[in-house]
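INFO  loader      accepted 1 record
INFO  loader      residues=475
INFO  predictor   begin
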Amino acid sequence: MVVGDVTTGTEVLVIGAGPGGYVAAIRAAQEGLDTTLVEKDAYGGVCLNRGCIPSKALITGSGLAHEAGNAESMGIHADPAVDMGKMVEWKDGVVDRLTGGVEKLCKANGVNLIEGEASFVDEHTARVAHGGEGQGSESIEFEHAIVATGSRPIQIPGFEFAADHVWSSAEALDADTVPDRLGIVGGGYIGMELATTYAKLGADVTVVEMLDDILDPYEDDVKRIVRKRAEELGVEFHFGEGASEWSEGADGGYLLHTETEDGEESTYGVDKILVAVGRQPVTDGLDLGNAGIETDDRGFVETDDRTRTAVDHIHAVGDVAGDPMLAHAASTEGIVAAEVIAGEPAAMDQQAIPAAVFTDPEIGTVGLTEEAAEAEGFEPAVGEMPFNASGRAMTTGHTEGFVRIVADDETGFVLGAQIVGPEASELIAEVALAIEMGATLEDVAATVHTHPTLAEAVMEAAENARGQAIHTLNR
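INFO  predictor   done
INFO  writer      dumping tokens
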């Protein structure tokens, strides 16, 4: 029996229940708008199910095992055994609790939930195809829509993810055994996070990257610290090489073939190949053209600072709308979209959106670098505090890296920061708040920080920029 097509109506239709979509739906419902959220796969999107959360769970687990087995200098002697299957089971439990929580939050806020795949019929109508045989479809008429369909890993020719030995990040996060040899194509944040994770779990990791270094957007001194640490963990890097093909190896494994721009070829023996060369927006199947919306040459939906597309009553948030492709940015955009629809004066402010890379050590950045500040016409005042001068960092055994803060020399207003070191992903929030609040170097330096903490390094960097640092040499 096939259920016939029925038509319902809603004020706000949200397509996709990732960190952009479900947040937008909840805020729209809180604004008193009748809101319908359509999700075809799993609540929480890639972030909760196949990205942010599961990767951080494995990063934590692998880090704990590595710490326990390498703490002789502290008088701790251990040889931990890692049960990868159990670790993945624990990770899945964390994911299940969070995704279940998202569904409950949506329902508790009065969001109408529909399972299925949505596509546009016209600029005020969408059709939702329900999964499963005989489930049929329904049409939804809407006043406003928010597209939040996210992104997927980019595949490269000859390395289709369907092959058992070719992983996307999703397969790497679900593996119940650790490969002896892992080849990683791509030295961006996903490749580097998983490279350090699997190296700590005991794999021999080889990273091939077409560029001349890892983590392309970050400053050289930041990248250098992360790369050096990865090499200490046994990660082997080959720069200026692109993956060309794979073949079966004589030892039962596989051969990863690479080629430089000059045609020089190399081969590396591996057991699994992780392809992590970036992500692309998920717009296929949406029939955006029926709603009068076009994508750019990379497939992204262009929006303004109020998240509106070329069709004012249709918004796009999260990865599908392009950079910054970050879960917390998606959530912020989702809130902006819902509030704009509700008639509030909301808009995006890209200046204070932090970013983090959960490598070892971590990277946290927000706002402007010194170079970017100069390009925008500022005369920057820059201060640094190395973690090797931090008492708290010494007590953790992690002293690599630094806090660097950038401000306008004339006014003292904080413009940005780059942190590489322990807990950088947490520490960067203080500087993000400083930028958002219009704080000055004096404000940060005069804020009494608990001792001993890593956060004191932010205060000391601010003092250093003012030429008044106590615990590090002033510039």
